[in-house]
Structure formats: structure tokens, C-alpha cells
Amino acid sequence: MSIWDLAKPVIAQIHSYCLAGGTELATGCDLVYVADDARIGYPAVRFGTPDMQWHAWLLGPKLGMELMLTGDWISGVEAAQSGFATRSYPAEELEAQVLEKAKRIAMIPTDIAQINKRTVHRGMAVMGFPTAIRQGTELCALTMGTETFQAFIAEKDSEGGLTGALSKRDAKFGDYRTSEA
Q1: Smallest Cα–Cα separation from 11: which of 40, 34, 37, 42?
Q2: Which residue of 56, 58, 89, 156 could cross-link 165, Cys pair, CB 3.0 to 4.6 Å?
Q3: What mean pLDDT is predicted for residues 85-104?
Q4: Which residues are in coiled coils (predicted)?
Q5: DSSP string over 100-169
Q6: Does residue 159 belong to any structural domain of this protein?
Q7: Which residue has the higher pLDDT, 105 or 159?
Q8: What is the domain count for the chain?
């Protein structure tokens, strides 16, 4: 929530893969612009629980549930359509579009932009967003003691290291490290 709590607007520009911690960083940003072909997901749900419960809030309960139960990814287009991202653009246009949007925001006086950001955040607070996000901390801690998580840690600490553990985790799904899904 540290990024979310910053006074000035924060913009995320996502291209290619945005997974696990990358998605957590993006959810803290005020505006999220993605390449149409970006892949956004949280494959870590295959062995644990994320510490930020943004899925249902930003994606809606049904798509959020699907991604939490599968660890699958969505494209940048789907991310924009579902509400995770502000907009999506063709990859070759992304940087220019984001820079143009940042320039437009910069034309607003800083004090007004900061108050406008807080106005939206207060509305989100009334709807329960910060509380929902923070509720994940306890559930994430509970995950640390599960047999599944402990087995993953043991696998990570073995000869194959983290790469081997992640490849083993994703092999049966045929995605991320195991194919060009």
C-alpha cells in the first residue's frame, strides 16, 4: 500500500510479463497502462496465497476467483477490459501513449492533482478497497505453514533452486516457464 499512499500520482507501464510481485506493484499505482500482448497473472497462487487481495476488487469476483484458483494469466487487452488496467495499447505505441498521458497529468497543478487523487482514494476507501487489500496479510501468513508451501520451499532449496521449483510448479499447467502459452 506504500505506492498507493504516495501523494503524487503514480503510473505503471506494463509490457511483456507482469507476474506475482509485478502485479502487486501495479495494483498500487493510480494508473496502469499495458501493452495489448502483456501477460498479467499471479502464478504463485499455485503454492501460496498473495498478500494483497486485489483480484476480486480489480477483476470482479468471477474472473478474480478464476485467476486465484488457477494461477493463469490474462492479456493486456483483458486486463483493461476487466478493470485491472486503465487502458491497453499496441506494444509499439505503449511508451508514447503513456508519456503523453503523463504530460497531460503534469499540466495539472501538483497540489490539485494530489487532492484529486485523494478524492478518488477516499471514494475507494468508503467502498472498502484498503480494508480488502490489507485483509490478505493474515491469509498469506497462514499459507506459510501449509504442507504445500513448505514442500515448495524445500524444492526451492534443492539442487534445482528457484528456477527448478517454479518449472516443476508450472509443468502440469503447460504455461509460463514450460511453453509460450
Answers
A1: 34
A2: 156
A3: 98
A4: none
A5: HHHHHHHTS-HHHHHHHHHHHHHHHHHTTHHHHHHTHHHHHHHHTTSHHHHHHHHHHTSTTHHHHHHHHH
A6: no
A7: 105
A8: 1
pTM of the model: 0.83
Q: In this structure, how many other beta carbons lie within 10 angstroms of the beta carbon of residue 86?
A: 17
Is 98 within the bounds of a domain? yes
Buried b (16+ CB within 10 A) or exposed e, 23-44: bbbbbbbbbbbbbbebbbbbbb
More confident residue, 25 or 165: 25
3-class secondary structure for 17-46?
EEECHHHHHHHCCCEEEEECCCEEECHHHH
What pLDDT sits at residue 181?
46
CATH code assigned at 85: 3.90.226.10
Q: Is residue 69 part of a domain?
A: yes
C-alpha cell at 33: 497502462
- The answer to the question of residue 179 being in a domain is no
Rounded Cα distance, 104 and 109, in Å: 11
